[in-house]
């Protein structure tokens, strides 16, 4: 009896030691020389806002931006922001999603100050493409930007028009140049001014260049602007047509066809290299003769890549980048599209 009770303290002590050890295991801290588990960094998220999401140019920008996202592993949020209200709402949306920055082609360059202010308040970086922000005085803002060399590209349009007119043997006094303008946008003015300057420098009479402003920068805008010129100048036998983009030229060509002009009497040269493909693939040539193919790869992929590296690695991109283009016609467009990685864009 005495022996059984004398072992009880030892048993209780052993149980206490076991409980203490278990409790210690449950609350065990990492050893001083053992690194703490690394925190998982938040994934980079970037917005890509465009003003005309239905247009092939912007769809291609999105396509190549997605390729950058796939390569670098960031989230890309594509947003069609067609007016100022939608732009500002989209920025709020991106902020709520935790985006760290966005690429934008704004529907109105005068929104620049408001866009920058809202982005700054949300601690987001801004990269502008295609259309450059302007301040309250209409001057370009000091914001990172990739755009085209508008004047240079316009000059190539004027040169192509002059050369094709010469090949066809048209007389200047029987020819009119339909300059479809949109001077409210600086890059648009650069393009059409450049085309006019190059065309007249090649010997085309300045008084035979007829300017007509378009209200919208789409096919309907070009159609209406050209119709005004066709009514004002019924004496013209042959027409040259140029605008800030393919859509403006397409509208002008359609208006001329509606007034009875054949492809043999129209030379339209656009800028963009997208909408023109419908014309190039027709069995017979139309009045849409050529276009300057711009680079959605640079405007989509490279801008997204640069913004990602700016966010993730602190590598600030150049403040101002200007891209050029390649002249395409029915004869060479397939080969050029293939070389530029755009052969899947054929209609």
Q: Would you write up a description of this structure?
A:
This protein has 347 residues and is of the alpha/beta class. Helices cover 45% and strands 18% of the residues. It has 12 helices and 12 strands. The chain has helices at residues 2-6, 8-26, 56-72, 84-96, 112-121, 150-168, 186-201, 219-232, 246-258, 276-280, 296-313, 333-339; strands spanning 45-50, 75-80, 101-104, 125-129, 145-148, 175-181, 209-213, 238-242, 266-272, 288-293, 320-323, 326-329. The chain has a 6-stranded parallel beta sheet, with helices on both faces. It has a 6-stranded mixed beta sheet with strand order 7-6-8-9-10-12, with helices on both faces. Helix 4 packs parallel to helix 5. The protein is elongated, with a radius of gyration of 31 Å.
**Number of DSSP-assigned strands:** 12
Q: Percent helix among the residues?
A: 40-55%
Q: Which overall shape is indicated by the principal axes computed on the Cα atoms?
A: elongated
**End-to-end gap:** 102 Å
> How big a fraction of the residues is strand?
15-25%
The strand order across the widest sheet is 2-1-3-4-5-11
Protein structure class: alpha/beta
Radius of gyration: 31 Å
The topology string of helices and strands comes to HHEHEHEHEEHEHEHEHEHEHEEH
What is the oligomer described by this structure? single chain
Note poorly predicted spans. Answer: 1-32
Number of helices: 12
Overall pLDDT score: 89
Note the main sheet.
Answer: 6 strands, parallel
């Amino acid at each position: 009896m005495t022996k059984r009770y004398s072992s009880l303290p030892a048993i209780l002590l052993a149980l206490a030691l076991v409980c203490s050890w278990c409790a210690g295991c449950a609350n065990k801290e990492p050893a001083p020389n053992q690194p703490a588990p690394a925190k998982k960094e938040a994934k980079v998220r970037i917005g890509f806002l465009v003003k005309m999401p239905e247009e092939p140019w912007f769809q291609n920008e999105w396509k190549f931006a997605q390729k950058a996202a796939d390569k670098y592993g960031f989230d890309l949020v594509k947003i069609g922001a067609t007016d100022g209200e939608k732009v500002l709402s989209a920025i709020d949306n991106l902020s709520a999603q935790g985006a760290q920055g966005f690429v934008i082609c704004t529907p109105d360059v005068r929104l620049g100050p408001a866009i920058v202010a809202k982005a700054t308040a949300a601690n987001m970086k801004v990269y502008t493409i295609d259309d450059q922000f302007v301040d309250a005085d209409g001057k370009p803002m000091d914001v990172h930007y990739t755009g085209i060399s508008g004047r240079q590209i316009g000059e190539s349009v004027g040169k192509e028009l002059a050369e094709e007119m010469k090949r066809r043997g048209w007389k200047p006094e029987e020819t009119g140049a339909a300059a479809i303008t949109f001077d409210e946008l600086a890059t648009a003015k650069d393009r059409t001014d450049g085309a006019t300057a190059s065309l007249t420098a090649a010997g085309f009479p300045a008084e035979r260049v007829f300017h007509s402003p378009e209200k919208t920068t789409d096919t309907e805008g070009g159609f209406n602007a050209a119709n005004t010129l066709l009514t004002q100048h019924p004496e013209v036998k042959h027409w040259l047509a140029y605008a800030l983009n393919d859509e403006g030229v397409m509208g002008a060509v359609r208006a001329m066809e509606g007034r009875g002009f054949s492809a043999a009497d129209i030379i339209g040269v656009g800028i963009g290299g997208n909408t023109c493909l419908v014309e190039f693939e027709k069995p017979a040539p139309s009045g849409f003769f050529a276009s300057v193919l711009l680079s959605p790869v640079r405007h989509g992929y490279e801008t997204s890549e640069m913004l990602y590296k700016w966010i993730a690695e602190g590598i600030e991109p150049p403040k101002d980048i200007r891209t050029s283009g390649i002249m395409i016609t029915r004869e060479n467009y397939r080969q050029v599209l293939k070389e530029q990685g755009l052969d899947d864009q054929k209609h």
